[in-house]
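Q: Hi! Curious about what DUF445 domain-containing protein looks like structurally. Here's the sequence.
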Amino acid sequence: MSPEWQDSLVSWFDDWAAHVHWLSLITIPIFTGVIGWLINWSGLYMLFAPLSFKGFRVPGLRELTRVLPHKLQEVPGFAQGGLGWQGIIPARAAKMGSIAVDKAIAKLGTPSDFYQQLGPSEIATHIVETFRPEVPELVDQIMMREHPRLWRDLPRAVKDAIVTRVQAQLPTIVHKVTDDIGVHIDQLLDPKLMVIDHFRKNPALVVRIFRDFGQRELNLMVAFGFIFGFLLGIPVALIDQTFHLWWLLPLLGVVVGWVTNLLGMWLIFEPAEPRRILGIKVQGLFPRRQEQAAEVYADIIATDVITLERIGDFLLDGPRGDATRKLLINALMPAVDRAAGPYRGAVRIALGSERFDRISTSVANEAADRTLVPFRDPGFSRHQADKIRDLVARRTKELPPGDFVDMMRSAIKEDEWMLYAHGAIMGLAGGFLHLLIFPT
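A: Let's find out. The predicted structure is below.
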């Protein structure tokens, strides 16, 4: 560098230093660091809380929302005419359930995989053990309703023989039922509907998925908010003290707030695959802990979402419950004929074919409603949950890191702009606050 340039540079620096407000210069990075910490801390709060919408209705807001840009329509409460807030993740719980199925659970296993993992033979044995004591009462109730006189007149030995034959056939019948369910499970069970419905009704569960394995990383993100804010504040301070424009600091605060949140989200999720930058291995905090996350995720799915209890509820009371009941009835119908044994001809003649068939249908209908009740046994469901947990954990660990990140991030990706906007607003407010405290 020539002497003339050196003299010019020294002269410029002396002139710059003479006009610097040193207290303002020093405090700006500290200020932006604190603001960065607050941005990430409050941003996390906005992600997870509150679980349900908190606010108040504004007359006409629902109608106004329809003509607003699509992004603004997605703000929690706006579409319902409310002004307030609901955590982004709880508000998008059903959406996350849908994406979790598409990105991960569909790859973790088909409905048949989940059902087979639960052990149809063990389920059948449990159903038999639970259902067998109810057989005498079931047969007695139906016969007393359909043909009380005949049933009262039958010798006790004949009644006992019928009940005994039904009980003896029970294991074969039930194993056929569970086998038939297994054959048709892809048509009877829809894990996507199960997951979406359960997440929608239990938004706290979705929050748990993030917090149970990621709380340490989320806390680190908040701490990094100060570091990012402080580092970004250094050039902001230099620019502010160079141009001395009152509006420059609030404007740069918007940039700092936006970038701080952007870097925070990047720190958590990106890059999904490990990379080397300047010889240092870099990977997002969440995908780095995929192994541990898989265990937590599997425990939540097996304990709360895809359980034997909920499968039983879905099979009987879900949108395809009629198909399940029809399958059960078709499997149970022959039981009545076989139960009558050597008395079948005499009973059919005594009752008439129409009444005999009606009793047969009635037995099948009543038994169908009771057959899957043992699915809802919480104790047995917890015992079987270990098998689902092992399947989900194993398959989640095998997911490519990109798919794992998609599963965790996709539900909020479209709404991240709200966090960035929140950071920008706080950065703007921070800039004005600094001007108020340290006027230049």
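A: A fun detail: Residues 96-200+293-407 form one domain.
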